[in-house]
Amino acid sequence: MREEELEKLRGVVRDCVSKHLYSSAIFFADKVAAFTNDPADIYMQAQALFLGRHYRRAFHLLNASKIVLRDLRFRYLAAKCLEELKEWDQCLSMLGEAKVDDDGNVSDTKDSNVMYLDKDCEDREINTSSAICFLRGKAYEALENRAQARLWYKAAIKADPLCYEALECLIENHMLTCEEEANLISSLQFGSEDGWLLSFYSCLIKKYDKENVVEAKFRDLENESCKNDESDSSFLRTLKTNTDLLACKAEYYHQCGEYQKCFELTYVLLEKDPFHLKSTLVHLAAAMELGHSNELYLMACHLVKDYPQKALSWFAVGCYYYCIKKYDQSRRYFSKATSLDGTFPPAWIGYGNAYAAQEEGDQAMSAYRTAARLFPGCHLPTLYIGMECMRTHSYKLAEQFFMQAKSVCPSDPLVYNELGVVAYHMKEYKRAVWWFEKTLALIPTDLSEMWEPTVVNLAHAYRKLKMYREAISYYEKALALSTRSVSTYAGLAYTYHLQEDFTTAISYYHKALWLKPDDQFCTEMLSWALVDESRRGVDPSLEFR
């Protein structure tokens, strides 16, 4: 058969693949490979077999070829076949021996003589070595060697910053701390035309910074667009409305405690793309915080119908039951989510929270410990373990866990708030003040009602230190955030009472009792304040005659 005819047949194979006619592609690729015995044609046949889900046959064809260990593409495709067959040890063996250091640098002396045969090489293809590193990471993760998986994912993204899947695994599975994520992004070698990708990646990592990271990255994109030609500027303007980037912004709103803004943004995103799973997860989290049980019910119904095998679907069902305070049912569905995907962090944390809501501390701690082991870059499980210890008055132990959470994520204000609460309970009021002030300094946006308890706690600590002016100042700030807090009115009343301003104290005790008429502390202290007020101006020598 002439070369022109063979090239036409290769074109037929490529067209069949593009139209997903895999049986036809396999038939014609087999004939081309039989005619030529060319390695590139054998690879094309193996590719067609792989796409047609004939993994054993594809592996046998590749393994039988004499160049499988010398051509990276052959080796990689053979390993992909073993991945689909879940034969992870053989998959690693096929990829060859290699070592990776803590920074993601690979040493692989045995592959120094490899070839790379590709007749259809494109200008911007993903580095095959990067894809191999990523596959090694997946194999190690499947074998539950998450430490090695983390190193190989880092190696993959460092070998080629375009290998987004490696970065996604590192971020979604919380394999890196905040600092490690930032260091990894800064170490990547982007091309001159990929400045936008650096900004995009920076938006994906944990967002606990003081400055609004997403908005800052938008400004970076705008500044970069000014340096480029008009077509690039148009591309960057379009990018600012991209669903992935806006989902990152919604995630940031959630972390800031701006749940209503988060919910409104994800609602718009899901109208535009109802099956964008990252937006769906953030939408569920915001709906949970806002108590929108109807929205959770509808979301759960749609997800279970569309994605019955995804952990996210059953997590949504668990969220609904948690929201309506049916914790037994919520536990059941969170557990189902973890059984479908053991590396889905929200399900483990939800599972622990459902136990904690019913004060079943041992089971809650077990779920949190599992999450802490699986997701070393996520500080929330350790934080929740500390909260459980504090609930049982194990303050020293709680403090240790909070400090551990702080080492993983040193910029989350919630961690500092809990350290302040522990210090307060241990009667270390000066330390409590320091931690609470640090909390308020780290809040990335203006104070919202979410942080009202922190402001009240700071006022309590100042009152304990007999710094009444500062205490009153913070109580009044707390009232500006929420006017329906009994503890704020009670604390303000008691502070004025200690200053012997009985009239003002009585006024605030009345306000507290208006909100909670059966409050024992306010009832008793109001009685004392009235007595103290009635005695004011009476000659002490005549008081008991």
Automatic annotation (TrEMBL):
<keyword id="KW-0132">Cell division</keyword>
<protein>
    <recommendedName>
        <fullName>Anaphase-promoting complex subunit 6</fullName>
    </recommendedName>
</protein>
<dbReference type="GO" id="GO:0051301">
    <property type="term" value="P:cell division"/>
</dbReference>
<feature type="repeat" description="TPR">
    <location>
        <begin position="345"/>
        <end position="378"/>
    </location>
</feature>
<dbReference type="InterPro" id="IPR019734">
    <property type="entry name" value="TPR_rpt"/>
</dbReference>
<keyword id="KW-0833">Ubl conjugation pathway</keyword>
<keyword id="KW-0498">Mitosis</keyword>
<feature type="repeat" description="TPR">
    <location>
        <begin position="311"/>
        <end position="344"/>
    </location>
</feature>
<dbReference type="Pfam" id="PF12895">
    <property type="entry name" value="ANAPC3"/>
</dbReference>
<dbReference type="GO" id="GO:0005680">
    <property type="term" value="C:anaphase-promoting complex"/>
</dbReference>
<keyword id="KW-0677">Repeat</keyword>
<dbReference type="GO" id="GO:0005737">
    <property type="term" value="C:cytoplasm"/>
</dbReference>
<keyword id="KW-0802">TPR repeat</keyword>
<dbReference type="Pfam" id="PF13432">
    <property type="entry name" value="TPR_16"/>
</dbReference>
<feature type="repeat" description="TPR">
    <location>
        <begin position="486"/>
        <end position="519"/>
    </location>
</feature>
<feature type="repeat" description="TPR">
    <location>
        <begin position="413"/>
        <end position="446"/>
    </location>
</feature>
<dbReference type="Pfam" id="PF13181">
    <property type="entry name" value="TPR_8"/>
</dbReference>
<dbReference type="InterPro" id="IPR011990">
    <property type="entry name" value="TPR-like_helical_dom_sf"/>
</dbReference>
<dbReference type="GO" id="GO:0045842">
    <property type="term" value="P:positive regulation of mitotic metaphase/anaphase transition"/>
</dbReference>
<feature type="repeat" description="TPR">
    <location>
        <begin position="452"/>
        <end position="485"/>
    </location>
</feature>
<dbReference type="GO" id="GO:0031145">
    <property type="term" value="P:anaphase-promoting complex-dependent catabolic process"/>
</dbReference>
<dbReference type="Pfam" id="PF13424">
    <property type="entry name" value="TPR_12"/>
</dbReference>
<keyword id="KW-0131">Cell cycle</keyword>
<dbReference type="GO" id="GO:0016567">
    <property type="term" value="P:protein ubiquitination"/>
</dbReference>
